[in-house]
Amino acid sequence: MITPRQRTLDFIAGKEVDRLPFHPIIMRWAAEYGGVKYRDFCLRPECKCAAAIKCAEDFDMDWVTVMSDPFTEAEAFGLKIEYPEDSLPEDCGGHPESAAAAAELKPYKTADSRRTMGRVQEIEEFKRLTGDQYFIVGWVEGPMAEYADLRGAGNASLDLFDDPESVHKAMDVIVEAALGFMTCQIEAGADCIGVGDAFASQIGRDLYMEFVFEREKVMIEHIQSKGALAKLHICGNTSAILPDMIKTGADIIDVDHLVPSMTEFAGLLGPKQVFCGKADPVSVIKDGDAQRIAAAVAQDVSDSNGRCIVSAGCEIPPGTSPENMRAFQRTSVNTELQSNIC
Q1: Which of 24, 138, 267, 289 lies at a C-alpha separation of 20 to 30 Å from 72?
Q2: Rounded distance, CA 248 to CA 262, Å?
């Protein structure tokens, strides 16, 4: 019988599969369903992995992932992050006071930070507990997202215009550190590394091309050179940059529900590239019914010519019922499959 990991690998490679892979982004939902306090979900690898594996087993998911919050690298770079017992981590300061100060940061070493090492330990724990059963996905922040974490969104936006030279230097530091961090995750057993660059959808295509595209490409090529697959995740309406996201060479390109349709972009995919998405996680997955969920996924599969992993555009929110999650999973089996899938 095909494993969830092999199903995902075969689907991306364009081989015949029994059903579409199912990769919902679950963080707070996973902790909620697994009965884990969110501080423990972020900071204790055994707690995150137990919750994620329970979700994968109970809802026939094809992946497990280390995702929980955007502050892993930020803490490694020196930001002060607080972890409430059962809520999202909080940014409590320590930001570089200027773009020039950000440019003077030194790349962190994965082994020197509890958060970066925690992520490596999570992958090791997934591997120990599940072997080759699930598609294991590590994670790093992309250059724009991490710069926005370090400087704050408002300051980061102004820096792009006021001190672009310093921004370039800071982003080079971010990427240099990320390359080492990704390598550690791959060596720990990750099949894939996700690059989350959410803020890149907010700066327009010109600035994306000036500051972000080539750096994302370097990160993706590094992942692939280490024998893993690369996933590129940018929240928001990425219609203006989606062709460029595909050109990065990422194996999996996430598409948010704010992108009206994948139809005009599907033909740009390479033979071993797929989309992932893009149902609305709130109005469809959380608040919809089984019929609405099925219709949304069927439209995504049709628009992508069958080259789309079943997922929402971003995180499934807490409060989503187990019944809706099961209905979501059933779409990976029941949706009419396209010509490249048996």
Answers
A1: 24
A2: 17
pLDDT (tens digit per residue) in 15-29 = 999 999 999 999 999
Is the distance from CB of 263 to CB of 278 less than 8 angstroms? no
Helix (H, G, I), strand (E, B) or coil at 192: strand
Q: Which two tokens stand for residue 83?
A: 């972890």
Coil, strand or helix at 141: strand
pLDDT tens digits along 247-278:
999 999 999 999 999 999 999 999 999 999 99
- C-alpha–C-alpha distance, residues 59 and 254, integer Å: 21
Report residue 177 as tokens: 């550190």
Phi then psi dihedrals of residue 336, to 5 deg: -60, 125
In whole angstroms, give the CA distance from residue 267 to residue 35.
42
Q: Which two tokens stand for residue 76?
A: 């490694």
Pairwise CA distance, residues 30 & 36, whole Å: 8
d(CA 176, CA 217): 13
- The two beta strands, 90-91 and 81-82, are antiparallel
Asked whether residue 338 carries a pLDDT value surpassing 70, the answer given is no
Please name which of 164, 337, 310, 193 lies closest in space to residue 251, comparing C-alpha atoms. 193
What are the C-alpha distances in Å from 224 to residues 191, 219, 231, 252? 10, 9, 10, 12
Concatenated DSSP letters of 241-281: THHHHHHTT-SEEEE-TTS--SHHHHTT--TT-EEEEEE-I
Enter the DSSP assignment of 198: G
This prediction has a pTM of 0.96
pLDDT tens digits along 148-185 = 999 999 999 999 999 999 999 999 999 999 999 999 99
Helix segments in the chain, DSSP class H: 4-12, 28-34, 38-43, 45-58, 72-76, 99-103, 114-130, 143-151, 153-162, 164-188, 204-207, 213-225, 242-247, 263-266, 290-303, 322-334
**Contact of 331 with 294, CB cutoff 8 Å:** yes
CA distance 209 to 6: 34
d(CA 154, CA 73): 19
